[in-house]
Structure formats: C-alpha cells, structure tokens
C-alpha cells in the first residue's frame, strides 16, 4: 500500500486498475494531541467495469449503398456493428473531425 503520504489526494495513473476487479481504498487520518496519537479511518469499495468493447465495423451508406464520399446535400446513414462487451448494454456516441489534416484534433460530438 501507499504509506507516509501527507497529501489528502491519491491519484492513480491510467490503467493502474484492472477490468472486472474490486478494490478497497482506505484513508487513515491521524493527529497528535497531548502526546497521544489519535486516528480514524474509512474504507470505500470500488468495482471496475469489464474490459473495453471489442472492435467492430463503422459503415456509411448513402441511399442504401456503402460509400466513403458523397455530396453534403445527400443524407447518409452511419451504422456501427459487431462491437461487443461483457458490460451491457453498449451505448454509442458519433462524432466527426472538421480538420482532417490534424489527426490529433478532437472529434466534435453530434447528437
């Protein structure tokens, strides 16, 4: 465990916990009053979700025909299929990038 840390905050690095696991975090606070150490503690149980969903396929169709290009005036359907997870139900959030030259740009969320 972590000991001797005088900070009231515990920060975990990404991927520090495993999927489908249970963790117990304990905080112990102590002080000294008249040469006597007084302490108290509290626990919290955290259960992590399962692993990330498996990869599926994202398909764009225009009038029922698969495509990767079409006019902006033509409606399109975007379908995600084949994604699976042990944690159900899955939810989906679609987005797009305006600046294709910058692969690091954040997608804009479309509702």
Structure description:
The strands form three sheets. Strands 4-3-5 form a three-stranded antiparallel sheet, with no helix packed on it. Strands 1-2 form a two-stranded antiparallel sheet. Strands 6-7 form a two-stranded antiparallel ribbon. The chain is elongated. It contains no helices and seven strands. Strand 1 (22-33) and strand 2 (36-47) form a beta hairpin. The protein has 111 residues and is an all-beta fold.
Topology overview:
Blueprint: E1 22-33, E2 36-47, E3 57-62, E4 65-66, E5 77-81, E6 95-96, E7 108-109
Antiparallel strand pairs: 1-2, 3-4, 3-5, 6-7
Compact description:
This protein is mostly beta strands. It contains no helices and seven strands.
Q: Which range does the strand content fall in? A: 35-45%
Please provide the ordered H/E string of secondary-structure elements.
Answer: EEEEEEE
Largest sheet: 3 strands, antiparallel
Q: What order do the strands of the largest sheet run in, or round the barrel if closed?
A: 4-3-5
Our count of helices gives: 0
**Would you identify the regions where 5 or more consecutive residues have pLDDT less than 50?**
none
Radius of gyration: 24 Å
Number of E-state strands: 7
Outline: elongated
Query: N- to C-terminal separation?
Result: 43 Å
Overall average pLDDT: 83
Class from helix and strand fractions: mainly beta
Helix content: under 10%
């Amino acid at each position: 465990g972590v000991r001797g840390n005088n900070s009231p905050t515990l920060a975990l690095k990404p991927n520090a916990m495993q999927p489908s696991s249970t963790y117990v975090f304990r905080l112990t606070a102590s002080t000294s009053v008249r040469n006597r150490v007084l302490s108290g503690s509290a626990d919290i149980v955290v259960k992590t979700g399962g692993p990330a969903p498996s990869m599926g396929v994202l398909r764009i169709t225009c009038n029922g025909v698969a495509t990767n290009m079409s006019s902006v005036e033509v409606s399109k359907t975007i379908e995600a299929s084949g994604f699976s997870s042990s944690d159900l139900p899955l939810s989906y959030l679609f987005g797009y990038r305006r600046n294709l030259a910058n692969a690091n740009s954040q997608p804009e969320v479309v509702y």
